[in-house]
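FAQ: What does a multi-protein file look like?

Like this. Sequence, then tokens, then the next protein.
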Amino acid sequence: MAYRSNSNAPTPVVLPPSLERNRLLNVKQMAELTGFSVAHIRRLYRSGKFPTPIRIGGRAVAWPAHVAAKLVGVIEEAA
């Protein structure tokens, strides 16, 4: 018999690595990951100094997680 919890807490979703690397991160998530401000990230990608995002809506943009991982690796190596 399986034990069922009375808790209504959501269970965390763990994606397989192949799907996790294709996850999209919005500009706020990229700011948290890189340590830059949202405005600075927007300035960087508009000037071509940051990877170009994917347009996912009228004004919304996002980056694949694998791009973010490469970018953070480059930032950490430069520091």
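And here is the next protein:
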Amino acid sequence: MTTEELRLNIEKALDEIRPFLQSDGGDISLLSIEDDRFVKVQLEGACTSCSVNQMTLKSGVEMTIKKYAPQIESVINIEA
């Protein structure tokens, strides 16, 4: 998978999970992909102060991204 294909697959994954985040007043942005293995995102809106945002990041976002791009090892939230 090329870097561009990887980026497109990760964007598809984020598009899949975004409606769930938005229904709770939040959102997510893709910041970068490091070494084709690590994804840096930024949780936004209500997600920044949510007490379960780390669970959302690992159980929701990371799991969905890995479904589209299995080579991703982890997803890291970069706080604003």
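Q: Is there any per-entry metadata?
A: Some entries carry free-text notes. For the entry above: The helical segments are 3-23, 53-68.
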